[in-house]
């Protein structure tokens, strides 16, 4: 029991003082949607903060501070934490509280194993149904990435490169399948940034997306699947050693 207690860190503030969560930049389109409940808003804000490392792994999530920062009662915070716990993003520790789950090489590898399967399938199906207009839209989405490789924020580049791939997947995938693809992409965000710590990372990513576009233009469904999986495997190989060293 003593050894177990030593592994439980002391509670503490998990974000910089004076940085209200409600003012943090949000990527989720759900946060501003009409009809979103208070509990859902709290859930989306916390989920985004965790996935984008605004709330880092191992950070304690104190309900009294969260209620104050978000301007809500304890009930929606408690419900949001339970939902995040079921997703594996938050760990609920009896008699201590909640904290952001630690990064894990096992989770990282599992996420990308699933992504390579489902995104490769979505890409292969879509190529078979690509109209001239949809191909032009895909080409425009790729070209919009070009200025972001020279200047601009990494966050914006990652948003736009995902828009490019998602526009391809949506051509022939059901809403339910797209929701699954997006859920795994969001889970990957905690790990994805480690692939972009090198000077030529964005250029490498941009080149991999050109391969995807070229295969689409050729109408080669099998090659598109290979290219999408190659791009995902690049992240796995590039980020893997950094994540492993961080966990030592």
Structure description:
By secondary structure, the protein is mainly alpha-helical. The chain folds into 2 domains: 2-100, Arc Repressor Mutant, subunit A (Orthogonal Bundle); 105-246, GntR ligand-binding domain-like (Four Helix Bundle (Hemerythrin (Met), subunit A)). The protein is built from 11 helices and 3 strands. The chain has a 3-stranded antiparallel sheet with strand order 1-3-2. The longest helix is centred in the last third of the chain and has 26 residues, at 221-246. It is globular and about 60 Å long.
What labels describe this entry?
2 domains, 64% helix, single chain, 248 residues, mainly alpha, Arc Repressor Mutant, subunit A, globular, Four Helix Bundle (Hemerythrin (Met), subunit A), three-stranded antiparallel beta sheet, 3 strands
